[in-house]
Amino acid sequence: MNRSQLSEAAGIPFGEGPDFEATGVTEDSRRVRPGFVFAALPGVHADGHDYAARAVEAGAVAVLGGRGGLRELHGVPYLGAPAPRRATALLAQAFAGNPTRRQCVLGVTGTNGKTSTAHLVRAVLSRAGRPCANFGTIAYHIGGETLNAPHTTPFPEDLAAMFARALAAGDRHVVMEVSSHALDQDRAAGVQFTAAAFTNLTQDHLDYHGDMDRYRAAKGLLFSAVTPDPGAEWPRFTVVNEEDPAAPYFRGLSAVPCHGYGAGGDVRAEGVRMLFSGTAFRLVSPWGAADLSIRLAGMHNVSNALCAAALCLGLGLDVAEVAAGLESLDKVDGRFEAVNAGQPFHVIVDYAHTDDGLANVLRAARALCEKRVITVFGCGGDRDRGKRPKMGAVAAQLSDFCVLTSDNPRTEDPHRILLDVEVGLQRAGKAKGDDYLVIESREEAIHTAVSMARPGDLVMIAGKGHENYQIVGTERRHFDDRECALAALKALGHG
What we know:
Blueprint: H1 3-10, E1 24-26, E2 36-39, H2 52-57, E3 62-65, E4 72-73, E5 76-80, H3 84-95, E6 104-109, H4 114-127, E7 132-135, E8 139-142, E9 145-148, H5 156-168, E10 173-177, H6 180-184, E11 195-198, H7 206-209, H8 212-224, E12 237-241, H9 247-253, E13 258-261, E14 268-275, E15 278-285, E16 288-294, H10 299-314, H11 319-328, E17 337-338, E18 346-350, H12 355-368, E19 373-377, H13 387-398, E20 401-404, H14 414-427, E21 436-438, H15 442-452, E22 458-462, E23 469-472, E24 475-478, H16 481-491
Parallel strand pairs: 1-2, 2-3, 3-5, 6-10, 6-11, 7-10, 11-12, 12-13, 18-22, 19-20, 19-22, 20-21
Antiparallel strand pairs: 4-5, 7-8, 8-9, 14-15, 15-16, 17-18, 23-24
Helix pairs in contact: 3-5, 4-10, 4-11, 10-11, 12-13, 13-14, 15-16
């Protein structure tokens, strides 16, 4: 692309200056190849402009950034943009051939439930003969291949390349989890969304967003991205969880038809029955009704299934196809996942890392557990401190015994994190030793909780789910809750 074409793709005038030909864009100076535009974006710890010289040395033909008044930098044209992150994402999509203009892209946002909902959508669409890619927290599923997911939403050039790869592989449908960070940072700008779904809004990421209003507004950007297009191949619509207090806000942002799910919504569940193997209910909708059983436990997963159903029904699938697809999903890694070595009690691993998420899985556990619920959990470091006592309070209310431990402490003092969590338990009237233990080592905490379990108990290991690492300081160490729990069971003679 030349200068004029870049300006058109980014939707802003780059002004006059020498022409050049560009072959790609990146915000990482280490990825620059000859012919690239280097996006000099501000970061948490550094400014991309500090790496512009390195990028030019590597072959960058222009620098894109938000500084006004500059015409060149380090001997190459400087492309000034009022919103450089957005411009970068738009250029990334253009260099990839704007694949989402030929795809049905379903975006799912919310504090909890994104991953399970996305997996359910992919299961339904795939079973209905509509090949579907999934860009998620756990992994990226593209053309039958599974790749590890380093970010909830990839960086713009990676995201654009993934869409192009999915299209080339025959995945004309894509369901993706869209985080508030990614929306706030315009990483998904240029993605043509067919539909957007909102699952719920509870406290999380306030270390980044500052307050709940800004957190909600960031998620709302996904709904604003779904615009009417009468000539589109697929209908444009949005989906909201009617049981969440933020539903009216998101519905108000929708410029296209909006379908509600949950109590009072268009798509709802009746006659819900909880089973350890999953959940049975009747799916009721304006498109028809069907009885089904999903292999995911808890009311929160009923909600996730309804969200997935609303998305798929809105695309025109019939209710029987949707029910069969929901039933076909075996499990979601790290989401209410059982660890079984033949022991006479249950061990469950779940990703729940907010007070609302923890409440959901503990209520599901309580409904299935014959005797005690023993909960192992902690909170991540360098993240929202305000949710720590809330998680402690939830665990205190819904567990019979708790073991507080490290999650991903990152650069924070693990002991300080645990003290923050402990406040919530103490406010709930729980006594250290009698009602809970504090064991900083996550391995020791899991082994202790498992050794405490008796027939009929349930051990809930929350916070990390599918993650196979623990971040201590800046070091990423291998650690998998499921592996650790299995080792603990085997040490007790099970399996």
